[in-house]
Amino acid sequence: MTSRAKGIHFVLDNSPVLLIAALGLLLRLWQLGHENFWLDELGVANAAFQPTLSQALKAANEHIMAMPLDYIIAWIAARWSHAESWLRLPEAIWGFLTLLAGYKLSLKLSANKRVALFSLLMLALSPILIAYSQELRFYAPLIFFFTLSLYFGLEAVQRSRPKDWLTFTLVTLLGIYFHLYAILAVGTVLMWLAVYFGRPDWEQRRDAFAVSALVLSIAFLVGMFTFGGVYAERKLSLFMYESFSSFLFSGLGWSPAFPASAAGWLFGLLMMSFGWLGVITSIRKNPLDPSAILFYGAVLQIMMVVLFDIFRNYPLFARQIVMLVPVTTYFAAQGVDWSIEQILAHSQSASRTAWTTGAFFALFVLAALPALHQYYQSKKGSHQDILAILTEQWQVPEPIHVEAGVLEVFTYYWSQDPGNQSLVTALTPLDYNSTDGWHSPSPAWFVINYPPAEGTENALRAVGFIPVYTPTYNTLHPQMLWHRK
User: Fold this and answer.
1) Nearest partner of 372 among 282, 470, 302, 268, judged by Cα
2) Rounded CA gap, 202 and 258, in Å?
3) 7 forms bridges with which residues in the sheet?
4) Measured at the alpha carbon of residue 325, what is the angle toward residues 320 and 327, in degrees to the nearest 5?
5) What are the φ/ψ torsions at residue 367 (nearest 5 degrees)?
6) Which run of H or of E encompasses 147?
7) Is the dihedral of CA 377, 378, 384, 390 positive or negative?
8) How confident is the model over 394-435, as pLDDT tens digits?
9) Is the dihedral of CA 66, 310, 271, 263 positive or negative?
10) Do 267 and 123 meet the contact criterion of CB atoms below 8 Å apart?
């Protein structure tokens, strides 16, 4: 067979995989530069804009959990352009590669191409994975390397060849220097390894894993103490920003991570329902099967993230467990496959298989459409709407008090238009204790996060402020504008 014939044969054999992967890539590139950088994204961008790599890494070291590799890639990309779409492109590529890694992991775990294809479809359509593939931060490579580490870890445990352990170690090591949580895959690999306890080749597997774990532990500690960033000195509540249910459901891809109507929840609810079905059937089939152990590992990894936050005095965020989304999609695919088998068990028609499989494919595609539509319609922050209002109503020398973090975004984007220079000059950090900004009767503007903290709205009204702008429901990280005449 000629090389051309082999190529055609490969494409035909893998056409469903290629088509779904192409769809996933398109969704990750769609509107890639539509939204401005926001909050932490702008922090990465500012590091990338530094003139030298050493300055970029110094700036990155001021951020929390900021391993160097993603910043290095962003810095290299910024040598050509500062455009949002260009700087986010590497994250979109990592997101696309996650589809292929998730497909391979699902195929290896299940030895079932239908399960792997459904897993690939869910990964391609997952709104939370698309969102992190369009964000200039280190979460897209974390998800990719965590997934790939699981794949090579299972490969190493099952085959236990030196090259398999070396590949697993190198992949995980590389992942750690994108994000420390890539090391959490080691816990699942250890559980897979434990199944071989007492077998004739146990010691060889154990020793190989021990060497790998030692290397990765050293790399983790070096990364944490060298690039780990500065955590808050004061004690922060674990649930300061998110409840545990929000942390869990949003982080696992079961609830929207952006403003959504009831229809926008359908895809996540399907994922959760079929996911639990997949977990139950996997454990009932064999509680020591790699699939069942994958679930135990996910539970352990969630516990480790929570304990790490407690130890490092940091609040819970859903994004901290987003690397587990390929795991939840795998179990959802298992649940779908079990459901198809139950339906086919009552049918003697061979053609029923294709129709039933196609119906489930269509179900997930249709369920994803509202969520995807609402994601692409959402916007980051309110700075553009607030700028339009202030351009018409602001008067010199009224100060514009803006909450910390948001101030940097306003300054960065407003400064790009020379006509906004007077507005930029009026921007000042919001200090609720300042007599000039809060208690003084002089005219002023306040930009606060929405919804306001408890008591803030009444306190503002008590000193003469009235709301001028309230953000629309589809705004991520929204702000509210107040004015006192």
Assistant:
1) 268
2) 47
3) none
4) 120
5) -65, -30
6) helix 139-159
7) positive
8) 998 899 999 877 888 888 888 888 888 989 899 988 876 664
9) negative
10) no
